[in-house]
Amino acid sequence: MVLFGIIQPVMFVVLFTYVFGGSMKIGDTTDPNVYKNFLMAGIFAQTVTFATAGSGAGIADDMQKGLIDRFRSLPMARGAVLTGRTVADLVQTSITLLVLAVVALIVGWRPGSAEPTNVGKILAGFGLLLLLGYAFTWIGALIGLSVRTAEAAPSGGIIWLFPVTFISNAFVDASQMTPWLRHIAEWNPFSATVQACRELFGNPGVSPSTAWPMQHPVWASLIYSVLIIVVFRTLAVRKYRSAAA
Asked: What is this structure's pTM?
């Protein structure tokens, strides 16, 4: 699982960098090097959110095999099982993100390419990415508890992620979208984290926007992620209690 979790984002980095790199317009240029630095925050964010599917599938499998019934007989808090699962997924995501950052450096990603940055800001950017990934694993946990079979969990965990990650500023400048789609992209929680990371990494960002999340992306990213954790952890623990009752 760890190996496959690393290979997929590495393939995204290579494909987007070398296939689309010379075709995407960022600002007033189609320079592939500019796109590389623009792209990486989006790839990082996509990687941490796609861990949602694995989290949901794992929980659904535990439910189907009766492992949850065993846990239920033990003296532990109801939310401990889900918390343990999501934290374990966060550790795996951290390993994947570390490998992906090394690959990104190899293909030409450079922090500070657009404006000065420092180690503290770069680490803060990765911290926001892990917080977003942890928040999304709670969505995956709720999906895993809601589906009837473990086979349905991967599809249920991934199908909604495609519009979330692609209707965003991750791979293109949102200003080039049609107006109604641009507004959705600019208020997308995923976009806020991507834009925040670009600012912290010192990489080129999207065109100026009047949307509050794009003007204050770090705060928007924190607020969105914490809100998702609070809402979906509450729903997941409630679903777990009713499912295991």
From this structure: 0.89
